[in-house]
Amino acid sequence: MPITLSARSVRRAALASAAATLSIVLAACGANFNAQTAQPYQPAEGTNASSGGIVVRNLLVLADEHGKGELHGVVINNGTASDTLVSITQAPPKPPTADTPPEDPAPVTFGKFDPLSLAVGAALRLPQTGGVDPTPTVTPSTTPTVTPSGTPKTPAAAPFSVTGAEPGKMVNVVITFAKAGPITTDIPVLTDDHYAPTPRDDAPKGEH
What we know:
mainly beta; about 10% helix; 1 helix; about 30% strand
C-alpha cells in the first residue's frame, strides 16, 4: 500500500536534507581558521604593496648570475588624485636592535629614470620599453665626458636596470612618490630566464 506524506512532512524532510548537505559542504571546505580560503594568497612571485591609493603589484628583479638585470612590476593609481613615481632605490640598512645584529647588505644599484606620471586609474608597467640594456658601455671610439675637475664620468645606468642583485635573495627598496608616502618593502630577485617562453637549449629533455 503506497504511503502518502502530508505537505508539512514533505517540507520538513526537504529542510532536513538541505541542512545536512550544507554541513557536509562546510566541513569539506575546512570552515575554520586554518582553511585554505582563509589564508592570504599572492598569485605571483613579486611583491605587492601600497601607499594610500597607490598600489604596487608583482614588483621583482630579473637578473643573471652576475647580478645584472632589470626591474619589473606594475604601479597603479587607485586614488582620487594624480601622482608621480619619483624613484626606486635600495633602502638604507636597518638599524641594529637588541635582538638583531647590524645589517651589511650588498650594494644594489637601480638605474635612475625621469619622474613618471601616474594619472588616476592608470597602470604603469615597468620597464616601460619591455627591456633595457643592463650594461651600458662607452665604445672605444667615444671619449668619456670629463668633469671640470678632470675626472671622467661613469656612463649612466639605463632606466630600470639593476646591478648587484643576486638571484635567490631579497632586496629592500624604497619607492618614492611626489604625493603618496614612500613604500619600503623587500622584493625578490629571480633568474633572468624566469619568464623564458621555451626551455633552454642545454636543458635535459623533459625539463621546462
